[in-house]
Amino acid sequence: MSLEKNIKIIFENIKLENNIDFFKLWKETYKIVNPSKSLDLNNMLTAIRINKSFYLCKYFIFAKDLKGDFLECGVLKGFSSYLLRSLEDQLFKDTINNYFLIDSFEGLSDFLDEDKSLNPDIIQNKKGDLKANIEDVKVLFNQFKNVNIIKGWIPKVFESLDEKNKYKFVHIDVDLYQPTFDSLNYIYDKVVKGGIIITDDYRSPSFPGNQKAWEKYFNSKNIRSLSLPSGQAVVIKE
After folding, report:
1. Is the peptide bond before 179 cis (omega within 30 degrees of 0)?
2. Ordered domains of the chain (ranges, CATH)
3. Cα–Cα distance between 57 and 54 in angstroms, integer?
4. CB of 108 within 8 A of CB of 45?
5. The whole model's pTM is what?
6. Nearest of 103, 98, 125 to residue 207 by alpha carbon
7. Is 44 exposed, middle or buried (0-12, 13-18, 19+ CB in 10 A)?
8. Percentage of the residues of the chain whose pLDDT score is greater than 90
9. In a 10 Å sphere around its CB, with 0-12 CB exposed, 13-18 middle and 19+ buried, how is residue 72 labelled?
10. Model confidence over 5-34: pLDDT tens digits?
11. For residue 78, with 0-12 CB atoms within 10 Å meaning exposed, 13-18 middle and 19 or more buried, which class applies?
12. CB-facing half-sphere around the CA of 178: CA atoms within 13 A
């Protein structure tokens, strides 16, 4: 049985709030963000991305009625933010949330010892990998007036944000130990009660530093997080 058939068995006909078709929304987002690439549903990385996107959507819907903005640390081509911004359009007639999308747009930063995999079979990325073109991302979000794309390295780039901002949904996808820890250190007190903090690479064999930073931060605050089946981890602010 092909992977594509399994993906369709799992994800087709899943309805989100307002009867939104999750898989249709995901495929539409893929075509818009990757116009020159064909969608390969027999690729395991595609299956992993769909799974992660489903959890992002579910937690995004959970936080939708809270007061606060959206913050993403680690944008790359803008797929996750575009997916959630498109979802919001179908949840509300009048969008009131601001989106702040932060990325160096220069690829990965320095790898520390915490970021090095102990598995010799893992082919790791290196500094400068996963680079995206900020102009392409700006074009992608041109139709949305409330999306702010901010270029810079964490944590210095946080100086570009208003200190008074409050966030109801934070997506951390910066892969490495130090920017993950610095992101949490900046945003946690700015997340509203009931707000969501979700990290993308908690169980990633390629980026072990993400889990180490996540656990170090939340253990220091005696806060328990949930490891999701998708490989992500999430905290609901209490």
Report:
1. no
2. 66-236 (3.40.50.150)
3. 5
4. no
5. 0.96
6. 125
7. exposed
8. 92
9. buried
10. 999 999 999 999 999 999 999 999 999 999
11. buried
12. 11
